[in-house]
Amino acid sequence: RRDMMAGVSARVLSKTLCYSTARSMSTVSDTGGMIFSPAAKNLFARNPNLSVNSILASGRSPSHHHVITKADVMAALLSPVSPAKDVKQVIAPQHIESAPISPIAAATAAAPTAPAPVVGPRSQAHRSHVDVPTTQMRKIIAKRLLESKLTLPHEYMKVEVEMDALLRTRAVFNEHSPTKASVNDFIIKAAAAALRSVPAANAYWTADAVKFHATVDVAFAAATPAGLVTPVIRNADKKPIPLIAKETKDLATRARANKLLPEEYSGGSISVSNLGMYDISEFIAVLNPPQAAILAIGSTQPKTVADAKGGLLQRNVMQIALSHDARVMDGELAAQFCATLKRLLETPSLIFM
Questions:
Q1: What phi-psi label fits residue 152: left (phi over 0), alpha (psi between -120 and 50 degrees) or beta?
Q2: Model confidence pLDDT, tens digit, residues 24-66
Q3: Radius of gyration of the chain from Cα atoms?
Q4: Which pTM was predicted?
Q5: Which of 163, 153, 155 is nearest to 341 (CA)?
Q6: Which of 305, 302, 306 is nearest to 317 (CA)?
Q7: From residue 54, how far is each of 76, 221, 353 by CA, in Å?
Q8: Sign for the pseudo-dihedral over CA of 251, 350, 338, 298
Q9: Which of 71, 117, 131, 350 has the least CB density, counted as fewest CB within 10 Å?
């Protein structure tokens, strides 16, 4: 019985080997003796201009032979090297130049240029693009943003501010002032006043020491065709709202015209990035080194809240997110700064003190 079972096993093994060999041979292209997957073989057959020597096989068969996949054929079709070139010509052209030219090689060289390989619409769409050269300013901005995210330990804190009192104050202010002030002008002034009240936050990190600013300088984000720049309002805590409004308008105008001096967008204690005019409710900003803090200002939106008597009231609220360098401002200091800023914005009369 054991002899009979052994005979059956041998016959089954023989049939399996024959089937496996036949299946492997069915994937062998007649070009170069390479093993192709069925999909790769079909694609290769539709591109007679493609040389098998220009295809790098990435697949492996169960017997550890190299197998050309469909992706390998596609890669060869999209390769900048001409598909008809032999891989030997790419690796060692000096040996071919020194060798005598055979009649077949001469006839091949004199042959007309073969048609372009057949590439599907999806591949053509993938290859289509437009290159826009980057300006020097965009390169600098990109470098600084990358350095900021890679080297600065960002921490974040959000606070909700009721804006009704400030909106009323701004409306009265603009009625009596020849210089019209925006909400952002009031926020810049409030941020400067908060830094003056929390001087420990008016600092930045260096390898040797935490350096404290001698003045309170507030930068604001201004969009320009060349990229985002941050002009700085110097001594913002000591300047009245009309002067801040005048300077922000002048700096933003000259920033869009690319007429700012380097010292006008360098330094600063903190930055204010306001996207509220685009109806962005809230966002997180990236630190602008060497500054240790940046405020992300969202839009003012109505919100229904409960009053002291259990009724409902509608308030205009704004979401403010603080990104800060944890090496300079820990959580407690950042919370203290946010609470001070909230109090100033909700009680605008304190800003003018």
A1: beta
A2: 444 444 445 678 888 888 888 888 888 887 788 887 777 767 7
A3: 35
A4: 0.64
A5: 163
A6: 302
A7: 6, 52, 77
A8: negative
A9: 131
